[in-house]
Design goal:
Blueprint: E1 7-15, E2 19-22, H1 23-27, H2 34-41, E3 45-48, H3 55-70, E4 79-83, H4 95-101, E5 109-112, H5 118-132, E6 138-144, H6 157-160, E7 166-174, E8 181-189, E9 197-198, H7 212-216, E10 223-224, H8 226-247, E11 257-260, H9 265-275, H10 286-289, H11 296-306, E12 315-322, E13 326-333
Helix pairs in contact: 3-4, 8-9
Length: 334
């Protein structure tokens, strides 16, 4: 394949639902406490949708802000990549609903399902398309609505306290110099332990796709073997960071800011300690937004820019781990 262009991130945007849910709010519905949740996850608040708010509506809102920040007209977008584990409907994919909300027609929409690693997978796809010259301006969106599928009871506590709703978006275009460009992306998956983090029902692999018995056993809610997921995450994320550093001949001191997936503050802190990254070089937003899966990295990146921790020209490392199991990293000169 002939490389004709390099890619760069031109603009970032995000969107949140209106409804903030505190740990104290959850304590009224299940056996938990603010202190218990903060100690185990670092999360203090998260946002959950209200009727009328959807993954598509939040994705479109985030996309509009990203386009404005990129100074790119919506009519110049020639591909939408939509990453989620919580599509608005079983089919079609949510990307076309975002397309419609933006007033676009005819351009391709690609929906991907790599869960917490979805944004990095999407970034790798966008980077490849830009490099070939096939597309010029790509809209990459991560958007999630977890709240409508959570078990808000003591039975579902360990999973439910983790998740929030929200959307993040970036516009990816052609680089004009080597000071602002996507350097490399690194994506992986291993399905050997796929069932340690999943939602079993409804499923086309089951007949019927969902039954009264499955619902009675609460199998339509997400389940997680937390200790095993934690172990995988703190193994694969450092390895993926090192893979990118070797590829680009970088030292740890070359990284200006690390933007990790926001699954658990304890995971991110341990990853930082394992590689020797100073705490001030890692930005976290899980405290206020919870785990927003495919949206978490672009939302965290947006926040880091807003608070002045990331500026133009900085070397950024994105890193994620999620269900599948999937993991990956990306190194970007913003």
């Amino acid at each position: 394949m002939t490389v004709t262009h390099r890619s760069r991130i031109l603009g970032v945007g995000m969107a949140l639902p209106k409804n903030v849910v505190t740990n104290h709010d959850l304590a009224k519905k299940m056996e938990t406490s603010h202190e218990w949740i903060v100690e185990r996850t670092g999360i203090e608040t998260r946002y959950w949708v209200e009727p009328g708010e959807t993954g598509a509506s939040m994705g479109a809102e985030a996309a509009k802000e990203a386009l404005a920040n990129a100074s790119v007209d919506v009519k110049d977008v020639d591909l939408i990549i939509y990453a989620t584990l919580s599509p608005d409907f079983n089919f079609p994919g949510t990307g076309v609903f975002v397309q419609r909300a933006l007033g676009l027609r005819d351009i391709p929409c690609l929906d991907i399902r790599q869960q917490c690693t979805g944004f990095i997978y999407g970034l790798s796809i966008a980077d490849a398309y830009i490099r070939t010259g096939m597309f010029k301006n790509i809209l990459l969106i991560g958007s999630e609505v977890h709240s409508t599928g959570l078990d808000v009871s003591t039975s579902g506590r360990d999973v439910t306290v983790l998740f929030g709703d929200g959307a993040g978006a970036v516009v990816i275009g052609r680089a004009t110099d080597d000071k602002h460009m996507i350097l490399s992306t690194h994506i992986h998956a291993d399905g050997a332990d796929a069932e340690i983090l999943w939602t079993e029902y409804p499923a086309s692999a089951r007949h019927p796709r969902i039954s009264a018995e499955a619902m009675a056993e609460r199998k339509h809610y997400p389940t997680m073997e937390g200790k095993r997921v934690f172990k995988h995450a703190v193994t694969k994320m450092p390895a993926s960071i090192m893979e990118g550093m070797v590829t680009n001949n970088l030292k740890l001191t070359d990284i200006d800011m690390m933007i990790p997936h926001q699954a658990n503050l304890r995971i991110n802190q341990m990853v930082g300690q394992m590689i020797g990254l100073p705490p001030e070089k890692m930005h976290n937003t899980i405290m206020k937004w919870g785990n927003t899966t495919a949206a978490s990295i672009p939302m965290c990146f947006y926040d880091a820019i807003k608070v002045g921790k990331v500026k133009q020209g900085d070397l950024i490392c994105f890193v994620a781990f999620g269900a599948g199991l999937t993991w990956g990293s990306a190194f970007v000169r913003f």
